[in-house]
Design a protein that fits this description.
The chain is of the alpha+beta class. The chain is built from two helices and five strands.
Length: 137
């Protein structure tokens, strides 16, 4: 890393909820709303982009932990604002406080940790797993 991200650094991402972000089990009167997996993906992207200015060429970051409370539904068409604030950085690990809100209320809060990695080394590790075949159990 070319710099350790400072505590308080905030990343922000605004997204209009589309059908691709919605739950896919809308049956029995259940309305389409932003799914928790999609929300986690948006919040992870927010943190990853916030961290990007601190990375050297050839580095990237991967999510290693997410703890999230999805507090309220958001229908398609509403704008969601995702925030990721650095609350701790030590070595190549960075911890973020997460928050997301739609046009009416806070819809999620949580914590997210990311690990800075060398993309080439990560790629070799993945390739070795693919080449090895088999299973762990």
């Amino acid at each position: 890393m070319k710099c350790v991200p400072k505590v308080g650094l905030v990343g922000e991402l605004k997204v209009v909820v589309e059908s691709k972000h919605a739950i896919d089990f809308t049956e029995g009167g259940m309305p389409a709303v932003l799914s928790t997996p999609a929300l986690i993906g948006l919040l992870e992207r927010t943190a990853r982009e916030a961290l990007s200015a601190c990375l050297e060429p050839g580095e990237n970051s991967v999510g290693i932990e997410v703890e999230l409370q999805h507090l309220a539904p958001t229908p398609p068409g509403q704008t969601v604002v995702c925030l990721a604030k650095v609350i701790h950085a030590e070595g190549s690990r960075v911890c973020f406080q997460l928050e997301a809100r739609d046009e009416k209320e806070i819809i999620a809060r949580g914590i997210h940790k990311r690990q800075v990695i060398r993309a080439a080394a990560f790629g070799r590790k993945v390739a070795a797993k693919q080449a090895g075949g088999g299973t762990l159990f």
